[in-house]
Each structure stands twice: as C-alpha cells, then as structure tokens.
Amino acid sequence: MNELYPDIDRWVIPGAAMAATLAGVRPSGRRGNESGAFWLGSRTAVSRVTAVVLPQGVGIEETPGQWRVASEVFGAISRWAKPRGLTLLGIAHTHVHGVPPRLSWADRHRSVRVPGILAVVIGRGGEDANHHDWGWYVFEKDDYRELAPSDLDRRIEIAADDALDVWGADSERVWELRTGMTATS
Amino acid sequence: MTADEKATVIEEGQAARGPHEDAHVTVDYLPATKPFGRAYPVTTMVETVRTDAMAFFGVRDRQERDTYRYFLEFSGSRLTNTQETLEQLLGPHRRGAHFNLVEQITPGMIGR
To answer: How far apart are CA B73 and CA B64, in angstroms?
Structure first.
C-alpha cells in the first residue's frame, strides 16, 4: 500500500455532493462557461466524500474553454483542509453544451496527477444530472483511465442519505456555504 | 492567521539561530495523506525544499505543450524566489516552517 496515496477500492459520494456540485456549476454553465468543484474527504480503501468546495471569485477563471483555479486557491483550500484531516479525492468540472464529457488533453495534463485521484467531467454545463452520463476517470500509473460502466457501478457508491458540508473558496480563504446538506435539502 | 490554519511558525525562540543550525520544515500536499518533513540547514535554498517535497509526493514539473509547475506556499503567499535561503525567508528567530505544495488547475477544452 502506498502510504501517501492509499489504494482506493470504492468511493462513497453522498447524493448531496452531486447536488451541491451541480448547483455550484450550473450558473456558469448557463452563461456558457466551464466550472467545477473539489471533492474532499478521508482517503482509505473506501473513501468517503465529506466536503465539497466550490472555488469562486478571486483566483478563479471560468470561460467557455477553460476552468482555471489559481495555485493561491489551491493553497487556501490546502490550509483549510489539512487541519481538518481532509484529503483531495477528486475534481469535478463541466464541459459546455456540445462538448462531450470526456477528458481533454488539458484535463489530463493540467490538473492533479497522483494515484487514485478522480477526475469527473459533467456534460452540458452541469445540466446532465445523471452521473452515469458523466465521464469518470481515475489516475493510475501515468495517466487517467476511464471507469467502465461496470467499474462505475462497483466502485462508485452514491449514498443518498449522507449529509455533507459545502464550502466556497477563493485565493484568500475558504468559507461555509451550507452545512449538513442532504440530497433533498 | 485564523485558528483554522495550521501555524506556519513551528517554534520561535528569543535568541537568533546560528548559521549551522537546522530548520525543521514540513510540507503538506492536498491530495496526499501525509506531510513531508525534514530538517535543513538554514542556508538551504527554498528550491531544494520544493524539489525534495515534489520527489516525496511523486510529482514533478512538466514541460509538455506548456510548463506546469508546482510551488511552495508559505503564510498564504506563493514563493517565487526559490533561490532564497530558509534563513532569509524565515528570519533569524524561526526554527521551522510549514509549507503547502500547490499547483494551478487548468482543465478545459483549450488545447484539447
């Protein structure tokens, strides 16, 4: 087992995390821009997403062809997350209408590249609500590998009732947006 | 500095540090479950810490279609002068420091 990046067999993702992510990215999507979210939690064999961070404001650039999260924002999230025992488990981002939810070259190369990190692509600017329509990739060895539908069902568990906290982040700080959010709240 | 942030000043003494003393450095990386930690002579350049931390976390700067770099962040600021020594960065009294290894995320269809 890799002590820094423990092997992950399954990810448990609250339905609230999906809902918070979609709610966070859709306003940009409706303007025709890409957007995204960081998914954090505890990294173990069964890794559970317990916090969604929606980068916004200073240090974030959302355009039709790119979602840019400045290193200062990455730093602000790091300073906030590490004392809480949170680890980055995945990054979800959108592709705009007409662009398939598949990893582009930039998606593969201009993002985190460590074993087991998830890269999730949501189509139609976040309007695709069914996660089976999203692109799901995990970084293995030296590149991202797409999860086949059978892998997706086996390795991604959507926990309908689990609650989680939703946070905003910019280049200076992380702040609370919602606590105890559930998929239906 | 808020209570939520890990203190960047590991320890602060009253007396100035000698030139051969070590500074204890820790580095966190958001996707990793453990920090990097090592004691360095205070004359060590920040670049050495950055390079060692990247090796520890299994990442490296990449020169592909463009340059993708990792940075050290200290007290909320990205360090751009990596030729600076730890003593120059920390001052004469600090005995250690906490850094974060950070990167800019730029997914998108540009350059697909």
So the answer is: 24
pLDDT digits (tens, 9 = 90+) for A61-85: 999 999 999 999 999 999 999 999 9
B63/A contact by beta carbon, under 8 A: no
Q: Which domains does chain B have, with CATH numbers?
A: 22-103 (3.10.20.90)
Q: Distance, in angstroms, between A47 CA and closest chain B CA?
A: 12
Q: Which of A4, A67, A74 sits opposite B33 (nearest CB)?
A: A4
Contacts of A95 in chain B (CB under 8 A): 109
Q: Give this complex's ipTM.
A: 0.95
Q: Does domain A10-173 have CATH number 3.40.140.10?
A: yes
Q: Are β-strands A87-94 and A36-42 bridged in parallel, bridged antiparallel, or unpaired?
A: antiparallel
Residue in B31, B65, B111 nearest the CB of A88: B31
For chain B, the average pLDDT equals: 84
